[in-house]
Amino acid sequence: MGKIEWAMWANEQALASGLILLTGGIVGVAGQFRGWQFAAYAIAAGVFVCLLEYPRSKRAKGTSVERTGQYCFTVCVKSFGPLTRNYYVRAFLHAAICVPGGFMLATVLGCVCLGIASIIYLAAAIRGEHWEPIVPRKDTVRPPPADIKNPPQNPPPRPPPETRRKRVEDLEGAAYDNPIPVKD
Amino acid sequence: MVASLRSWVANEGGKHFVLGWISILGCVCVCVCVDPVAGGEHLALYEDLPAVLHWTAVSLPVQDAGGMCISRASASVLNLNCSLVLLPMCRSLLTFVRGTHAVSSRETRRLLDKSKTFHVACGVSICIFSVVHVSAHLVNVVNFSVSYSDDFPALNLARYKGEDPKLIILTTIPGVTGLFLVLILFLMFTSSSYCVRLFNYEIFWYTHNLFIVFYIILMVHMVGGALKYQTNIEAHPPGCLTANQSSTSQRREDEERRCGEEAHFQPHYPQTWLWVSGPLCLYCAERFYRYIRSSDPVTIVTVIRHPCDVVELRMLKKNFKARPGQYVVLNCPGVSSFENHPFTLTTCPTEKKETFGIHLRVVGDWTERFTQMLLPQPRMDLEILPMVQQRRYPKDGWTGFRLQRLYFVWVCRELQSFYWFSELLCALHHKLWQENRPDYFNLKLYVSQKDNLQSMSEEKYRPLTSRLLVGRPRWKLLFDEIGKTNKHKRVGVFCCGPKGISKTLHKLCNSARSSGTTFEFNKESFG
């Protein structure tokens, strides 16, 4: 159990919670239930959480798999520097965001799920994890060695015509067999 | 790449057929539950709803009835999926079924191999329909609160008119159990993503084992439920008039439609246990069987260290039978009591030699600690508890099998890796040459790392070095070549490797071929 990265799980949970908050908010606003203002807030909060959590962090050791099209989100999230790098900030941010969702029935579930994600982020932060952006690796294109550029100018060396001519009396000693007869 | 119909049917047809059939079953369930005239017993529920006590349901506000219909329909689909989701995980049972002569068709065996895909499909359906079910119930709970009926107090879920819906959820059994079910489902779903399974398998495994709590709560979810049916439908038909009511029509019609007695309601018994208990008992029996089988200890006979961090382990266990292509799951209590790791068998026990072997690569912390325990002093008193689960049919032996030719393509990063099986490959090659079947086994070795090329200088490994190519294989050309030399035949492709190669091969297998060869794609994955 030593090398578990809790932040990866918390990230999945937070993304799912963002979607649940968004869905609950849409249901609340569309149904015009009592307290629909909380539902409108939940829509905005859900979108914000999804945008923040979409770019996956780079793993401390080993290969990282990024989500489709996450590079532009990585750039945005990276620009906030230590605010987004630190998981303590994320944990308290999610805890604060989820509270207003608890006041309306449609968004209660999103609130609870985001709360759980916030707890896991806190655990990840205590263990010293932090968010690292996944930067696409630029493969260094090595230039080919200089002598490869020019093809050979001369044909390969061949033995003189006397040796090349097919000697019927001594096939074993012939240099090689010519498919086309040799002309001087 | 144009997908050919025949190849697509060979590779994808089976699983799509099964999924389609299950969807049809689900639709049938939905229709049965949403049947608007399912006896008159449920019309009473519509009567509870506000505004009108007309005797047909048609004039009632549709959106109130709709919530109950949708939640009931999604509940029945959930029942079906929760019962089916456990079946693909009964691996010993599937192994047994797959190995019997009753399953003689290769298509059925390949379909059984896709059991994990089916499990995932059922899991995803559970999540989707839970969302539908929860949304519909949220609407219902608001309605119960708003539409509290004084005429039929037994039908109300709310205790008084305008009761806070959140309170209804938190103080009724369906509400509280529903909340816990959704939370467990949320934890299980978020830990089942590909990344978490690949990099943090323990999180996935321990969270997924919460399924037993999920099922226990599921079975009591409907206790004291909202859905009631009327028991005295003859004496009090829907829409009949009570003593102090009269309708606008003639008085003699009023006489006929008087209610004999008050309506009596009975809640539905929870039906989930009918669906779920069978597969749950089967799965528990399966886990118990696996535990019993694994209680016999195993002795490690030989430990061989190979280059590139690979260790070969030869073991001995009483009454152990296995066929090539199967894998074992190792548990070493000295390293970790609860971790079980699968390894494909590289040597199977035969009549002459009873030992079986695996090759394991030191990649993570479990393998590292395991090999540290084994080397340099291998302890013979270690208890290893293997289990065998059959994955696919054997590909060794050429008598009695329909295998006509084998193409073995092996891609490694470093040349030293080929030493893991160099003896076996050379021995096989020589044996086939002696038997005058040189084209039976076609070997192609690829070294993908182009820098720092080494060489295999030993003369005895000549069959390997002469078949060695530098760089990654060009799969399309390989497939074209194999297609041309095996026209109008069925070629089975068995892939064991990373996802990238697996996806490429899968696409190539599905694409059209002028040679008329069908490529059937199979892959081995433990994640």
Automatic annotation (TrEMBL), chain A:
| Positions of region (Disordered) | 136-184
What GO molecular function annotation could you give as one example from this UniProt entry? heme binding
InterPro entries according to UniProt: Cyt_b558_asu
Entry keyword Transport: yes
Main location class:
membrane
Compositional bias of type Basic and acidic residues: which residue ranges? 161-170
Q: Which UniProt keywords apply?
A: Cell membrane, Electron transport, Heme, Iron, Membrane, Metal-binding, NADP, Oxidoreductase, Transmembrane, Transmembrane helix, Transport
**Which residues lie in Pro residues bias regions?**
142-160
| GO cellular component assignments | NADPH oxidase complex
Where are its TM segments located? Answer: 12-30, 36-54, 91-124
Q: Where in the cell is it found?
A: Cell membrane
Q: What does this protein do?
A: Subunit of NADPH oxidase complexes that is required for the NADPH oxidase activity that generates, in various cell types, superoxide from molecular oxygen utilizing NADPH as an electron donor. Subunit of the phagocyte NADPH oxidase complex that mediates the transfer of electrons from cytosolic NADPH to O2 to produce the superoxide anion (O2(-)). In the activated complex, electrons are first transferred from NADPH to flavin adenine dinucleotide (FAD) and subsequently transferred via two heme molecules to molecular oxygen, producing superoxide through an outer-sphere reaction.
The subunit field of the Swiss-Prot or TrEMBL record says:
Component of the phagocyte NADPH oxidase core complex/cytochrome b558 complex, composed of CYBB (heavy chain (beta)) and CYBA (light chain (alpha)). Component of the phagocyte NADPH oxidase complex composed of an obligatory core heterodimer formed by the membrane proteins CYBA and CYBB and the cytosolic regulatory subunits NCF1/p47-phox, NCF2/p67-phox, NCF4/p40-phox and the small GTPase RAC1 or RAC2. Interacts with NCF1 (via SH3 domain). Interacts with SH3PXD2A. Interacts with DUOX1, DUOX2 and TPO. Interacts with NOX4; this interaction mediates superoxide generation.
What does the sequence similarity comment in the record state about its family? Belongs to the p22phox family.
Name of the featured protein: Cytochrome b-245 light chain
Source species: Gasterosteus aculeatus aculeatus
Automatic annotation (TrEMBL), chain B:
Question: How does the UniProt record describe the way this protein sits in the membrane?
Answer: Multi-pass membrane protein
- Which key words tag this protein in UniProt? Membrane, Oxidoreductase, Transmembrane, Transmembrane helix
Cellular component GO terms held in the UniProt record = NADPH oxidase complex
- Which Gene3D superfamilies does the annotation name? Nucleotide-binding domain of ferredoxin-NADP reductase (FNR) module, Translation factors
What's the domain of life for this entry? Eukaryota
Protein location: Membrane
One Pfam family recorded for the sequence: FAD_binding_8
Which segments of the protein form a coiled coil according to its record?
none
> What are the GO MF terms of this UniProt record?
superoxide-generating NAD(P)H oxidase activity
Q: Which GO terms describe its biological process?
A: defense response; superoxide anion generation
Keyword Transmembrane listed? The answer is: yes
Question: Which parts pass through the membrane?
Answer: 16-38, 77-97, 118-139, 167-191, 203-224
State the protein's name. FAD-binding FR-type domain-containing protein
